[in-house]
Amino acid sequence: IITKYVYELLEKDCNLKKISIPVDATESEPKSFIFMSEDALTNPQKLMVLIHGSGVVRAGQWARRLIINEDLDSGTQIPFIKRAMDEGYGVIVLNPNENYIEVEKPKIHVQSSSDSSDEPAEKRERKDKVSKETKKRRDFYEKYRNPQREK
């Protein structure tokens, strides 16, 4: 809830635009996003790039603990963004902890290996090995993206 609310504040209060990256990604490729002011790429004089720390914090946040226990001004980058924009800076807010968003792909019905009796056993074994490796990779990314989530 905190992250979603901070994202809303970045767009509404700070007038930042949510930009998908990479900009030329196809629908099947993984994507993420950053926030930018209108003049971030065209301001020839001043540019402020904000990068938060590691862990569960996301774009626009310094520390969730401060947001929860203190206030938004202490725990978010919003006061810095507003001041920078008042002083003529272009602003880019990076989002390195959320740098891999899986794209939902339509599910395709695959015949079970028992139905494909004409398929060589070696080919079935390779498929099983690849699917296990894919699951391991997906589990790794899920753990990386959501370190506090328990299975």
Summarize it:
The chain has 151 residues and is α+β, with helices and mostly antiparallel strands. It is built from five helices and four strands. A four-stranded mixed β-sheet has the order 1-2-4-3, with helices on one face.
What is the chains' assembly state? Answer: single chain
Rg on CA atoms, Å = 21 Å
Q: What's the average pLDDT? A: 79
Helix residue percentage: 25-40%
Which sequence of strands runs across the widest sheet? Answer: 1-2-4-3
Count the beta strands. 4
Main β sheet profile: 4 strands, mixed
Number of helices: 5
SSE-based structural type: alpha+beta
Shape: elongated
How many angstroms separate the termini?
21 Å
Strand content: 5-15%
Low-confidence stretches: none
Please write the string of helix (H) and strand (E) elements: HEEEHHHEH
Protein described:
This protein has five helices and four strands. The protein has helices at about 1-10, 65-70, 70-75, 80-85, 120-145; strands at about 15-20, 30-35, 45-50, 90-95. A four-stranded mixed β-sheet has the order 1-2-4-3, covered by helices on one side. Helix content is about 35%, strand content about 10%. The two termini are about 20 Å apart. It has about 150 residues and is α+β, with helices and mostly antiparallel strands. It comes from Gulo gulo. One of its GO terms (molecular function) is siRNA binding.
